[in-house]
Amino acid sequence: MATLSQKLKLFRGLFTGDIAYNAPFYVTIDITSRCNLRCLGCPYHSPLIRKQADVDMANRDISYSVFEALCYDLKMMGTNQIIICGEGEPFLHPHLFDLISAAKKIGLQIILYTNGTFLDDVNIIHLIESRVDVLKVSLWASSNDEYKKNYPVDNTVNLEKVIDGLKLLAHSKATKKSKFPFVNVCHPINAYNFKNIDEMIDLVFRTGCDAISFTPLHTHKGKFSDFSLSVSDEKSLILSLTKAKKRLDSSSVGHNFKQILLRFKIGEAVWEKLPCYIGWLHASVKMNGTVFPCCRHIVPMGNLNEKNFYEIWNDAPFRSFRQASRTREGLTSISQNSYCGFCGYVGDNVLVHRLFKWFSPFRSTKIKENLCSEV
After folding, report:
1. Residue 68 DSSP SS3
2. Helical spans, DSSP H, in the chain
3. I need a surface site. Which of 122, 209, 295, 372 has the fewest CB within 10 A?
4. Do 331 and 225 contact (CB within 8 A), yes or no?
5. Under DSSP, is residue 361 helix (H, G, I), strand (E, B) or coil?
6. How far apart are CA 185 and CA 198, in angstroms?
């Protein structure tokens, strides 16, 4: 959660130009490209678009020194939260818990993404004792039939492995009387699973998780369009989500229904509806130290092996990105080098734009005003 001081610095930058006086509110760090699964909709390891041999083996894991220096820079600048994820599975980084320890020692909050297949006794104890703040478990299926469609080259035994791991984690937290980590099951939605929202919620209840969140499928400019939702599918899904919201609201399980419904209302072509403020709020760091404004932009802002993060944050590439992302014309240009469809940062952009819209060079539209009033 951003402090008042951070918000004031953010708006100072937005008003005066392209320099960010605030540190990024949060930073995503890809720590490894190794993965043990081939999720159908994964932009890095899907059997539809990529072979494992294509991975840059020389830079498949972030180094401890680069990670530690980055965390130190972020804390000194005022960032409080990092998201540890990967083009692969973070638990396959050979020094994952050393990285977590380094970040925690500096005082950073940690969100850790995983596919859930490594939630065994040893790793669960490490998660609890290292006080990882949030564990997000990506799961595309709630049944063996769904699993076969969403993980076509992986064994369905992995589904039971994830379910058993989640149950063990809930039991271990209760035994140790720990609230850490907060466990959120993240469920990407596509044509193979959108009819089974209730079944996924049942799984969350059954495993004792703290929350569930849904995300639209990123088609990655048509690469996954064969199993994206049709217009009629989306309407059916929205009805299912609306009904499911009532069920979850009466329970202790958290959810992101407000955000997911907003993302479907805006639609895939986000750049036509809203300006993008992510260059002021966030940065994404790859295993080899390359820095990007977000996880889906392919033009680098700099590299941590050449400059520290503080220098990169307000260097010319970042400033140019911020200028372009504030206008419709600039966003159209940026979208050619980005996978902006169903942008995952829409919620942040809407919140900022609700306050900054009167000063934005982005032309006002009816849908934009309606969206801003809903958040």
Report:
1. helix
2. 4-16, 64-77, 96-106, 121-129, 144-150, 157-176, 197-207, 231-249, 257-266, 278-281, 309-313, 316-324, 328-334, 346-356, 366-374
3. 122
4. no
5. coil
6. 14
> What is the tens place of the pLDDT at every residue in 222-267?
889 999 999 999 999 999 999 999 999 999 999 999 999 999 998 8
Phi and psi for 255 in degrees, rounded to 5?
-160, 170
> Token pair 């994820």 is at which residue?
85
Confidence band of 293 (pLDDT split at 50, 70, 90) = very high
Query: Which residue has tokens 């049942």?
Result: 202
Separation CA 41–CA 33 (nearest Å): 16
Neighbours of 296 (CB within 10 A): 21
Residues 6+ apart with CB under 8 A from 88: 32, 33, 34, 35, 44, 45, 60
Per the structure block, which two tokens stand in for 51? Answer: 């072979």
190: CB partners within 8 A, 6+ apart: 40, 41, 140, 150, 217, 224, 227, 228, 229
Which two three-digit tokens encode residue 145?
């039939």
What gap in Å lies between CA 348 and CA 228, rounded to an integer?
24
d(CA 60, CA 141): 27
The token duo for 220 is 């990655």
Determine contact, residues 113/87, Cβ cutoff 8 Å: no
Distance CA 274, CA 195 (A): 30
CA distance 268 to 26: 24
Longest dimension (CA), the chain: 55
Q: What is the pTM of this model?
A: 0.93
Q: Distance (Å, rounded) from C-alpha 141 to C-alpha 196?
A: 9
Helix (H, G, I), strand (E, B) or coil at 85: strand
Instruction: Tokens for 321, please give them.
Output: 């990105």
Question: Phi, psi at residue 108, to the nearest 5°?
Answer: -90, 145
Query: CB count, 10 Å around CB of 329?
Result: 10
